[in-house]
């Protein structure tokens, strides 16, 4: 795919319609000299990039309140000096050879091109859905309808809780699709799970919570976020039934627990019914809060999705959802459904303003309300399921010793490896251009706690992420590095 | 294609309150079909909530400039389809069954209609640009081009510093229009000034800064944000030359200063050259940081915009800019240009992910690069300037005793009042349906500091915000309450 981002410095005819800021002493006989000097400095210093089209002498003269000839003469002088070029029909531009001291635009171009620097050929790292499948056309259609229909106040400083149109549509959707007890008043929009967890950490601290239990496998960024907010984060072991929530009663001083019940991240197991009951019982008995990260609850393949724990006791659960797996992380849109008593505190933590674009919020509301969201999720569920089945079939025939787990849902699978081989396999994969994560990077150990999770060698394979054209190659490379 | 914002002005909670916006193809034989379709979509999409009373066919017809029968026939068709109901004496309403099940939509509708609950007729409170002027069509065009051209990785978890396309375009724009020394590498995108200041407060705390001087007139939300982050906030007096930055040397232990140099908020004066020099000298001598809030630097009417202080010493200034005044606060897009040494720390404070929608960032980049941003700012500058001139002329003829200041730039003016009258005037305005701010609400005093700013009675009047249709009435009401 070609990037068509024109550096405005080298863009076409509309490049300058345009404001130009100059430091000028606009008085007396030195007027023209001052203007010439200011323009020269702007070019020399790099503020005006090579190729930038300058305003017409008429328009700049009007802006500066000087005679047009003064500007025209300045331009002519700088053309003579080689700083500017003048061409029939394309106006006056900064000369290309006038490369300034700084090379900002050039560096920017390098960074922009960075996507194509040598890197892994195949990316199977967990975390991202298939970005090639983002429904651009339908999203744009929703954006058009939303933008056309938006009331004036959508363009203003918003409600810190988010646009009511989206909160209302989400309440309907979450009740229907995820079994969440949701009223629009307790739905809060945020800029991704990271933002939501930041807000909740702030609220927990304000409520004098000192420790949040976390799963012994998980994403370190979120553990670090909680720890950075001054919270202790004792680990809760994870086994084949999910997090050992029955252990919570043995962890003194814990005021909240962060769990991934629908699909433990990254091991992929669902929290068993007993454990669901245990975590709710714990929360009721202690006044603790359950932080339910429902990051990919929509994607379950072999039966109905497991409903959210939140439905069991909405006053004890902070439910987190996101479009990061169902649509795209780049939208930076997520939501929380809060116990009623927390709404006010979360709003206060968010500050006096909304943080997410009202237009994006209205677009998502329209996208969901029109049914496009459901259709997209359903289509992706079929595609991801097919990918999963292909992965299982390929491994069964080419690496029959490898046991695959965490398959029932989500975007990734866990490939169990013989003890002690994980690191070697990850490195062998890298040599084949295959970026794949070992389970070790998700393991959370507290050295002196005696609560070390059992060592487990495994790969976490995101079978959803590769584009269709890369998938066959990625699968082949994966099978080749299996022991 | 015609866009119409009909406000039939029907009062009462269950009546049709908000503006009814319909996107119509108002030509040819498809007129009625187009209207029917637009209404049906508005009901189906939830924009028109169950029970909502529609404007009378006469009034909607007048607003759309079509025959009354066309509207009446559309209504009849939708009644037949079950989308609307018509009852003698209570007009045409959205059918209750049109959006079944949960009461959420009803509640949402109430909240949505909240914009039309009894409130001020005219809003002149400072802070917001003219929301009716948001360039919907051109923004959507930019969004379409951006979405079409976006590389796959734009849909993924982004660089915490923001999309390079936008940072690069902003660097060029800020250099050209605001005299900012900007390299893309030191431009950081954030979700509004509030987000940016939150990040900087975190970084300042990590650098063991204990106090940030603030202007003795300003927006309390930002002072509270700094104080909430654990920073002391000694006031810096503001006079007719801007903040008394020459006083900084007499404030011990201050590690940073938050200023609005281009257009002091809300008094409207520009920081004088001496004071600009003073603040830079202070920063260099003490290693302090200047936090430059350039919230409306684009809007200057009588001469070239005052360039940013940042250009004087990029390594000592954190420059903040935003689209909140130039486009719309609802986009939640702002940016910082950082001293090189702070980039890493701000990225760390932001966390491992971007916070702003990549699509909105790419849209803004495209909007700027295409020249649409410059054209919009220019057009708005002309409109706001005309508004300002009308305000001055009206006051000169109808309230000649009132001195108007802070006029050279921005979206608001300060109307100086006789001592002791401010509160009475604000209240008299409220009784006339005029929401207008007194200067007192922006005053920052520290009781025991002996640094009280001189008492000044004044109104802060946002002449930019009212829609065109409201402006004449707002101006008239304002003149009537002047002493």
Outline:
Chain A has 483 residues and is an alpha/beta fold. Chain A folds into 3 domains: 2-94, Orthogonal Bundle (Arc Repressor Mutant, subunit A); 135-372, Type I PLP-dependent aspartate aminotransferase-like (Major domain) (Aspartate Aminotransferase, domain 2), CATH 3.40.640.10; 375-481, Aspartate Aminotransferase, domain 1, CATH 3.90.1150.
Structure description:
The structure is a homodimer of 483-residue chains. The first copy, chain A, contains 14 helices and 17 strands. Chain A is an alpha/beta fold and 483 residues long. Chain A folds into 3 domains: 2-94, Winged helix-like DNA-binding domain superfamily/Winged helix DNA-binding domain (Arc Repressor Mutant, subunit A, Orthogonal Bundle), CATH 1.10.10; 135-372, Type I PLP-dependent aspartate aminotransferase-like (Major domain) (Aspartate Aminotransferase, domain 2, 3-Layer(aba) Sandwich); 375-481, Aspartate Aminotransferase, domain 1, CATH 3.90.1150.10. In chain A, the strands form 5 sheets. The first copy, chain A, has a 7-stranded mixed sheet, sandwiched between helices. A 4-stranded antiparallel sheet of chain A has the order 13-14-17-16, covered by helices on one side. A two-stranded antiparallel sheet of chain A has the order 1-2. In chain A, α1 (31-44) packs across α3, α5 (136-149) crosses α11 (358-369) and α7 (193-206) crosses α10. Chain A is globular, with a radius of gyration of 28 Å.
